[in-house]
Amino acid sequence: MASLGVDARGPVRERTFWYVMLLAVAFVMGWGAVQLAARGDDVSPWWPAAGFAVLAVLMSSRRLVPVAAVGVWAVTAFSNIVAGRPVDLSIAYGAANAAEAMIVALILMPTDRFPRIAGVRDVNRLVIATISGAATVSAVVGVSVALLGAESPVATAGAVFASHGSAVLAIVPLGLAWNDQTTVRGRAARWLQPLALAVVLTGVFLPGTHLPLSFLPMPVLLWGAYVFPLRGVALQLMATAAVATTLTLFDGGPFAGAGWTSLQTSWAVQSFLVIYAGTVLYFAAARREMVTVAEDLQVREQLLRGGLVDSQIGMLILEEDRGGEPRIRNANRRARELLGPEVEAPREGAEPLPLVAETRGIRALRAAIARAKDHPHGESVTEVELDSEVRVEILVTRVAREGGRAFLTVQVLDVSERVHAAQALAHALADERTAASQLREVARQKDEFVSAVSHELRTPITSIVGFAELLEDDAVLDAEAQSHLAVITRNANRLGTLVEDLLALGVGSKETAKPCDIAQAVRGVLEDLGPNASERGVALREHLAFGLEVMIAPSDLVRVLANLIGNAVKFTPAGGEVVVAAKFDARTITLEVVDNGPGIHPEDLDRVFERFYRGKGAAEGSVPGVGLGLALVKQLVERAGGTVALGSDGRSGTVARVTLPRVLAQADWPDGIPLLEP
């Protein structure tokens, strides 16, 4: 019977095994019931095969119930034939048994899950299924008896109804409750109650005894329903039905001595068993529900108590007395640690304790409770400092009940670390603001220093360049002097460019942003850098559309272009080229400077815009410069509301992209224009 589980019947092979076994039991029970029948009767006093046939059909899935019922028809018909009943009557009885089993199974099994008895609702379904099945089989048997010309078809149908009803109610619950795990009560009762039932049944139905004591087994069976799980109750019901039926046939019990016919006696005994089985099953199911609810409540109470006692948050439960004063019902260890030992919980069964102490913790608790009482939703949150090291937050929830009294739940949280952390954070923020202010002051002083030094350097550099240009026009200088003079001029110009870059980084351009033509600015820079590029063997090309304007200070745009194109020329080997192109949409213009030099190492790409940083390629190739050009480009572009980025794989050239806000013409371009390739 292990396959009669709560939720599943196991694999097909196991279900088939139990189906066959239960049909075999039904066969034996059918043959035995016919043998116990009084001589000449066509109806057995009790038909246990009906219960085992229903269990067999329940082994199948719902859609195969009719197929399983065919097996019941064959087995029960054969058992009747073997027991000596006429073939035609046996076939009719087999059909009736099959119809009954199918109807009961379909009602008990609304889905493919094996049914179970877990409560009163399940017993209701079993009773409805039993009545429906018994009514069906009694109707079929009554009609069959009438058609075959036998006597008393109505009485026969009534006896069959009671016989099959008691069998299903006594036997089917055994399968439906096989896995019931309800707790067994009392060690002694497990032995005394079955013994008492055996004694009572023997005494009531003892052959030759006809005392009117049919009521006597009921209290003993109800005792069993209290002591045993449903499986034990079902076993006792089946045993009671078997004993009462068998001993009545041997002239025992109150029904045998009433002077009734065999059909009347059978009907009386089985009706008695139906009432007993139904009553005991309802009592057992109701008791099981109560036990389940009680166990669930006990588990919940243990969980709640465990959670309350072991919680790292202070927890209190209070109740207002009739005068509205709060009294402690329960308090955990953490609450006592935070508020003091005065919030001790009362002993088990004792009255709630009042809040009478005048400690700081109790006063804070009473104040928080008073605020919750005044709050429209019965809630309050209070933060209080209990001493120099401990600060707590008290959360109170008040739930009013009938009669003006209320329950209060209190949570006490230690927020000392949070407060200390907040104070430390405030101090850290203050220190950070002070440090930031100092850094800004240092940056301002640095910018002032750079600006002052740059201004001071401008005059001597200008003088050097001017007098060098005058000397270049002097014809009396020989070739060596001219060479030395060219070095002076070149380095003075480099020094002048460096000074201008420092000034731009320090104080910025004094010009305001205005529309600047990209093509015009690029061509001017290419013209200035042309001699240097030619000298290095580098070709300069541009692909620019007319009428593309960006919003930037003109000198800043020239400086950005000069730095980017100049860098490209410096790093492009002889025979290479530098290409300047532009892409644009309705809102921005992206200027690209592309060279086919050695590129930039990937690890340098994130740092090349830092001041005075020079990448590995520049250092290894002895390319002149101090590392200010790209830093200046980034500052000037971002000042104009744009972005700049470099792209390189470190092997085959570099692409510098500068994106700046576009100045639209009078007829504005619509939104969403895609980037156009030059």
TrEMBL record:
Keyword Transit peptide: no
Kinase among keywords: yes
EC number: 2.7.13.3
One cellular component term from this protein's GO annotations in UniProt: plasma membrane
Boundaries of every Histidine kinase domain copy: 452-664
Catalytic activity: ATP + protein L-histidine = ADP + protein N-phospho-L-histidine
Name of the protein described by the UniProt record: histidine kinase
UniProt-listed CDD domains: HATPase, HisKA
Pfam families: HATPase_c, HisKA, MASE1
Membrane topology of the entry: Multi-pass membrane protein
Keywords (A to Z) from UniProt: ATP-binding, Cell membrane, Kinase, Membrane, Nucleotide-binding, Phosphoprotein, Transferase, Transmembrane, Transmembrane helix, Two-component regulatory system
Localisation per UniProt entry: Cell membrane
UniProt GO MF annotations: ATP binding; phosphorelay sensor kinase activity
Classification via Gene3D superfamilies: 1.10.287.130, Histidine kinase-like ATPase, C-terminal domain (3.30.565.10)
Transmembrane segment boundaries: 17-38, 44-60, 67-85, 91-111, 123-148, 154-176, 188-206, 237-261, 267-285
